[in-house]
Amino acid sequence: MFKKMKNIETAFQHVRGFTIILVIGNFITLCYYEYSREKFIASSQDKLYILYNGKVLEAYATERKDNVGVEARDHIKTFHQLFFTLDPDDKVIQANLTRALYLADESAKKEYDNLSENGYYANIIAGNISQQITVDSVQVDLRSYPFAFRCYATQNIIRTTSTVTRSLVTEGELRNVSRSDNNPHGFLIQRWATIENKDIKVTNH
Questions:
Q1: Domain boundaries, the chain
Q2: Helices H, strands E: what count in the chain?
């Protein structure tokens, strides 16, 4: 009788021990599953998928601070390309300048107004002149805010009979603003000024 009771008690202890181990094992498995799920979600949120030419490309999201220099230089480059790329077509000029003025403050608007009042854009159209710009380099000082910059570029003013190559150097500052479709980098150029704009060479056609 006592032996039978002892066997039952031993079996009960074994079952209880097995049940405890099973519960602990399930708990550990559940914790590991939850950890893996959270990690997967976090890594998925850092991935972006871009549709380009019918193909889905994978990109990775990063903090702005990791790319602030790259974004700042691209913002400045984009502004100069839009502001100084001109063709003898009023709609093209207006479209480029409208986009450019979203990227800068009233200092750029003042320069645009001065050129317009002096008949610069009218002469571009009347003379069938094209103006192209190549941004050679952009220097941005990220050590202090707002970020001071200097842009070095080469202009080509193309006429029917000749092409004038000019050296262009501008400077200004960048401050942070909200990102938008019109300003995807979230910067605004301020205190923008041209410090050099001189002829390098003239090529006759």
A1: 2-48, 64-204
A2: 5, 6
Rounded Cα distance, 132 and 159, in Å: 12
Please give the CATH number for the structural domain made up of 64-204.
3.10.450.230
pTM: 0.70
**Which tokens sit at 33?**
């599953």
* pLDDT per position as a tens digit, 56-103: 555 555 555 668 999 999 999 999 999 999 999 999 999 999 999 999
In whole angstroms, what is the distance from residue 198 CA to residue 158 CA?
15
Nearest-angstrom CA–CA distance, 55 and 34 = 33
Could you tell me which of 125, 101, 124 has the C-alpha nearest to residue 113?
101
Distance of CA 80 to the CA centre of its chain: 16
Quick one: DSSP state of residue 89? -
pLDDT (tens digit per residue) in 125-168:
999 999 999 999 999 999 999 999 999 999 999 999 999 999 99
Contact 74, 185 (CB under 8 A): yes
CA-to-CA dists, residue 72 to 33, 61, 84, 173, 202, angstroms: 41, 17, 18, 10, 33
Quick check: 74 and 81 in contact, CB under 8 A? no
Retrieve residue 5's tokens. 């009771």
